[in-house]
Amino acid sequence: MPQPSRTAPLEVWHHAGTTRLRIHIWNDDAPGRPLVFLNGIGSPLELIPPFAAQFGDTRLIAIEMPGSGQTPETDIVCSPIFLARLVVQACAALGAERFDLMGFSLGGVLAQQVALQYRKEVAKLILAGTCSGFTMLTHDWREVGLFSSAFPFLKLWNELEHDLGKLHQATNAATFALPDVMSRQLLGFTGWSSLAFLPFLASPTLILAGTRDSIIAPSNAVQLSTFIPGSRQEWIDDGGHLFPFLKPDQTAQKIRPFLGRTSVVETMPAAVKSNALH
After folding, report:
1. Using CA atoms in the order 141, 143, 149, 153, what is the torsion angle rounded to 10 degrees?
2. Residue 272 in contact with residue 23, Cβ under 8 Å?
3. Which DSSP state fits 239?
4. What mean pLDDT is reported for the chain?
């Protein structure tokens, strides 16, 4: 196997009118189809390096959503259709006109919209720790679902604080969007569900779930795999909601064969370089 590129992660900004998206790119000169990563609600790009280190032979493009990390909020509530267009435009500007797509948590909800809206651009789809929108399954019939609760973020916030303490990254709860910002991010997805269009997704799909995810019930992975024809569903043993970052090696072992990369190649991400993309 050829030695992978070991370029430092590169920071670029995509500008679309008044909207700005911060993007981190690992292994920018790596050959082959890139992997585009959409992060979860309110979470910064600084969460991703443990996962990115498992893909040293892959150009990995991580896009930060408005209101997360250092990416400013927009003046309007962003619908999934609008965000999907921003993602594909940003990828095209980076020369990634066709890509594999991974979405985590709310990023996985958005990834489903991207895969439907831009079928030619999405080669393979990976959905991690995510659900079908307001039709998601809860842990118990007595619980109020995340997408319909008036205060869905206390549980999310407590889980993040608990799991972030296990990360080796210099990341803490303060780097996440505040609950009111998360609420505005979620507002654009109000009433959104993918169940009606999941049977029409054309991309080969891998669905991942942590067995102890207390935010998105693991049963949602079964729901998604039931509705997406030919999809493959895998469990991350003892994985909480943040399993791609807390168990990156186990997560990569599920993903790499699906993407046609059979061995794990690790690199240590260096300091972020910055550039502007217009």
Report:
1. -140
2. no
3. -
4. 83
- Residue whose C-alpha is closest to residue 244's, from 87, 59, 53: 53
Please check whether residue 28 is in contact with residue 95, taking contact to mean a CB–CB distance below 8 angstroms. no
Q: Note whether 98 and 121 are within 8 A (CB).
A: yes
pLDDT at 263: 65
pLDDT digits (tens, 9 = 90+) for 209-242: 999 998 889 999 999 999 999 999 999 999 988 9
The string of DSSP codes covering 99-151 is EEEEEETHHHHHHHHHHHHTTTTEEEEEEES---BTTPPPSSTTSPPTTT-SS
Enclosing H/E stretch for 29: none
116, 201 contact by CB (below 8 A): yes
Cβ–Cβ < 8 Å for 19, 74: yes
Distances (CA, A) of 110 to 84, 189, 236: 7, 9, 22
**Cα distance between residue 145 and residue 186, in whole Å:** 13
Written as one letter, the residue type at 71 is T
Percent of the chain residues topping a pLDDT of 70: 76
CB atoms within 10 A of CB 238: 12
Give the number of other Cβ atoms within 10 Å of residue 191's Cβ.
8
Cβ-contact 269, 56 below 8 angstroms: no
179 pLDDT more than 70? no
φ and ψ of 20, to 5 deg: -125, 135
- The answer to whether 5 and 60 are in contact (CB under 8 A) is no
Q: Any idea how long the chain is?
A: 278
Percent of the chain residues past pLDDT 90, beyond the cut: 58
